[in-house]
Amino acid sequence: MKHYMCxxxxxxxxxxGVAEENGNLLCKGEIPNKIINxxxxxxxxxxxxxxxxxxxxxxxxxxAVSTAGVVExxxxxxxxxxxxxxxxxxxxxxxRLEKRCGLPCTVENDVNAAALGEYWLGAGRGAxxxxxxxxxxxxxxxxxxxxxVIHGAACFGGEAGLQHITPESTxxxxxxxxxxxxxxxxxxxxxxxELDGRKIFxxxxxxxTDAVAAIAKQMDDLATGIVNICYILNPERIIIGGGIAAxxxxxxxxxxxxxxxxxxxxxxxxxxxxxxxxxxxxxxxGALKNFLLRNNLNNGKM
Length: 302
What we know:
five-stranded mixed sheet; 10 helices; 23% strand
């Protein structure tokens, strides 16, 4: 079976793994992302060095990359990146890795890759249409219809966290983990740095009324954004990922109840609400799926 080098580039670290073409990860690990100190050249060199290390053990047929930032996936071109990725916009990352390593390479946005991973081997398996939402510091999203990521004209498709829920506030300003922390801190008279999501859920599970109320509000606000998505795309499944996916048992009843109240019954009855199952491997597996699809392997079409 062929082997592929997979990377998932985040703000502070780069996850990596060697995968078989069926998505099975044979090994995985992570290295620091030092781009803020070493620039794009340093990042490319770190990815290449890791690839060469595993090339000694495996016969690699390609490099599959998932990365933060807005990506034009046909070229593997970084169109936009957060400020902690200096020099990243304008980088044709796929071309640079291909030249450095002599292997074909594809690059996809990290949320899109995670959605592809869930679609292929996770909570989206068997669905014809889905919308994957990652809830963390912000809110990211990806729509997949008939196995195809909807990138949009500017490759900004799926960026649902930027939708305005009120004239003043975007969805991610209202329903992200950052919003949850802000609301609990305000209720408790604490600094936001004194709290994190894990602490808040632990508080809620012991009956803390401020934490319970803030989580309920977060789920109601999350449901409002999901309703907008459902009325535009009418997906078969909504998949919730990111850090809050670990709290499925607590959150599912709250979110499902809010959706039941807000959605037209016909839409609600034909919608499956799921939580992501691939956890930290979703980006690696989805990066591989993107590589296989773009190279017409694994019976895939784009």
